[in-house]
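hey so i finally got around to running the thing on that chain from the lab meeting. sorry it took forever, my laptop kept dying and i had to restart like 3 times. anyway pasting the input first so we r on the same page abt which one it is
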Amino acid sequence: MTNKPSKQKGVALIIVLMIVAIVSILATEMGSRLQLQIKRASNIKDNNQAYWYAMSAEQYARKSIRDLAENDRDLIYLDQAWNQEYVFPVDGGGIEAKLIDMQSCFNLNALRDPGDTSNNNTGAGAGANTTSNSGTNSNTGTNSGSNSQTNLPDRIVAFQRLLELVEGDIPTYNVETIRDSLVDWLDEDDQSTQLGAEDGEYESRQFPYLPANNFLAHKSELRLIHGVEVQWLEKLLELVCVLPNDSLFLINVNTVTEENAAVIGAATGLSLADAQSVIANRGPEGYQDTNDFLAEPSITALPLSDEQKEWFDVTTSYFKLHTRTKFNNATFAMQSVLKINEDNSVSVVSREFSGF
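ok and heres what got predicted. didnt touch it at all, straight out
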């Protein structure tokens, strides 16, 4: 027997409806995926445009720094045009750029090669350091000649003074621990200094890692150093910087601000108040040369070693460019370390990328 025509038509209708439903589902899915791909392509396009805006800002900064080097290489101070924040509107977004002098902060990599000195307040290398519990904190204005450290290179003594000047009152034990642990982190050997830390300390932690035994790549590495604690890390990070693969320790006394006057205090032995006073008295065009800075009454009263006097300058070789760009819904941030070379050309030493 054959099915009745009415029943066959009913089955055919169901099949057609199923096909239509499947096609509708496929069409909806394809449409959704197409919209997603269009949105993704649009986001990539916007992000790429924001990236190239940042790169154009970097190129403009390099040209501006080259012009500065050719015209004012021997004297760089805050009232010059390079210290202005630039805001440049573009269709669909904008560019913001700001240059920071990287010689107005304490270069942590300078402790990788602190040098040995023979003056009366330093001695052998960091591996032979000793400390005295009766020392006076440099917050009181005590200079390096009467500092509590002996047998320490001047740069390491300066770093300890910087820790002592950080807002938040870092305990003395932590100060000495951080000092020695940072030296251990930077040096190439696996022998820990008095209160320092090498492989064994870091391998024993819940999430083990090893010290770099090399230059720091970024100042944020400081949070990995034995003895560092979160409550005053932010204040410390405001005073320090890292010159990639460079142990240069030169401070431009014309670009240090009163907010980071502790850098001057650490390098000289001045109290924080005296260091701020020196900065406030330098004038809008800064010191014309380092002799003017060293001739300040509060500076001449200090028994600075010959090495310490070499730490100060009125010019700069390193800048950091902070760039933020926006295009449509895309945002992009980049930090570029720029170096002025001997021929006044400007090279990019490193770049960091991030969102806002």
